[in-house]
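User: ok so my PI wants both of these folded by tonight, can you help

Assistant: No problem, let's get them done. Here's the first:
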Amino acid sequence: MSNLQTQQLLRLTALLQLEKRARGASLEELGFVMANETVGLIRYRQALLWQGKPAGKVVAVSGVAAADPYAPYVVWASRLCAHLDGLKITEVREIGPGDVPEALGREWHEWLPPHLVWVPLGASLGALVLAREEPLGEGDKALLSYLADAYGHAWGARLARRSLRARAAHAGGGRRKLLLAALLAAVIAAGFFPVRQSVLAPAEIIPRDPAVIRAPLEGVVYNVLVKPNEEVSDGEVLFTLDPRRLRNQLEVSTRAMEAADAELRQARQSAVVDQKARATLPTLQGKVDQQLAEVNYLKDQLARIEVRATQAGLAVFDDPNDWLGRPVAIGERVMLVADPGKVEVEVRLPVADAIDLEIGSPVRLFLNIDPERARGAVLTFASYQPQKGADGVMAYRIKATLDAGEPLPRIGLKGTAKLYGVEVPLAYSILRRPISSARQWLGF
């Protein structure tokens, strides 16, 4: 391949690349490409892009990112391009200082080299202006004509798209204002729409009216005979207390009673002949009675170390190993015996989330094991004073009864309850927490 053919192939490749770049560039990128990257196809010293009517301005200058409309060179070039644009040139033409008015020709050599190429991009779109040191050849003119079609098509499409958006924005400005006003009015009106207050709080299934199993006397838990959530019958032994201390006391009291009884019998025998021995009989009898009462008391205590269920149901308590060897006081709760057919919902409502609740208000329960299904319930109790829970949060204790027909969940299941309060305006329901926080912070 000859050197001439290689050059022609390279210029053809450059032409195709410029065409591809022009068709894929945005409007701002396209002006930069035309003014700066065309040099890869046609050599020139300076270039600028002129946008025709109605804009009538220089929009791009080679070597700079953006054209300054007040720069002296851009001001003079704008006058020159406006004159050439008025000539209605429809094909690539080379212009010299003698082809323009004398006022423009006098300053030509101050700003431009002797040869100027006017490349029109289409009717009223504008032109690409190239300033060269040497005249334009016929081959270069043909390439510029082909490139002008690609540039003009791409630039016209971008200008048309921007013009359409501008017209749409201008035409829709009034409509947009009306729409915004209507939307604002709708939002204000919606703020007065009455809605029912609601709040979410953690919930748990607890037994209703359970039998509380307490320690009947002070001692140490010796053995737990049932497992958590195990069904027990009425009278079944649940746990036992350590009997060793009571048995030792009983043995000591029994020996003391036997000794007092022997002393009483000896005094009775002596009282037949000894007036002094007869006088000690009432005292000795009282001592025997006291020891007998203590023995009977200890036997009664030993009979109570086996703690039994007072009703049939489920044994509700924690791990049995936590109770083994643990000292308990009289009346201390150890476990519950609950009827699995009698359950209710307990909700802990944090003080910060509290709303006005009424007995009989609806409650929706979402269990963790079935979060997609809501169970209906009715509020039956709300405490007046909050209490600190295991998590350290002050909360009100709320109770609710499940609606009739709802399947009874297992005791101990946890979930989330949605509590409903009184009706308030929608704006108050949304802004209640921010208003409360602002009042606490501002102090009014």
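One down. Here's the second:
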Amino acid sequence: MRSSLFLALTLALGGGTACIGNADAQSVREVRKQMEASMTLNGVINIGREGQVEAFQLDRRDKVAADVASMVEGTVRNWRFEPVLVDGKAVSARTEVRLRLLADSLTGTTMQIRVADANFGPVSDENKPSTDNVSSLKMRAPAYPERAAAIRGQGDVMLLVKVGRDGKVADVIAEQTNLTVVAPERQMQMLRDVLAKASVNTARSWTFNPPTTGANKDDAFWTVRVPVRYDFSQREERYGRWSAYIPGPRQQAPWRTGEDEKATGTDLLPEGGIYMVGRNDGPRLLTPLG
């Protein structure tokens, strides 16, 4: 579930390459060969009683290149989901979806674009009270680390936060740090480290409202994901545009989260939200993504 906290960190400038010296140019060229271009798009899917996609509405289609939008719409409309059940009966459902597109270079002028990942919103929680979920009480956004800002470093940190019954943070790790700028590998590792450290250190002081209703209210603790974005551009400016995508290694929490280790789409959770781990409120996709 989402909270009202917006953790996207924005500055006035834009750019897709960290500031580097000439001596590192060769290293950057090598990194670029391994880099993929990424675009994140949002939409809404209507699912029929048999799991078929009855309709798909792509958000802000006018901001997306026509051929890319057509490819995405054709792909999604061919998906099939496990039927959504309410009280054991299949029903029509509606879910928000966030998609990651990746573009790979085939030749100097040709790109292959595919839907690489998806994250689906809940389809059955319209009548659930907000007290079923962990929510924010006091959450200060991390400051942009000076070492990262100095080289125009940008990226997304996905935090895994263990929330105790008193609402305080019992533990926290940076599950994954994905970069959106290109730099030499040693500089990118430094950037991952400073962004993750800034996020984790700030998160230790956060406090939450534990669930007081619902199936999880008596749990010994709760695990939530909180996305933190470090970016020099406004969120509206990014939509429909390609950017560098350099995913970092994914870390496992030292405590049991109650989640399938093969969970996908977790780094697509929209910034500004608090997402309980171990909950499966979204539809189950049966067909391949692309």
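The chain has a mean pLDDT of 85. The CA atoms of residues 163 and 169 lie 5 Å apart. Good luck tonight!
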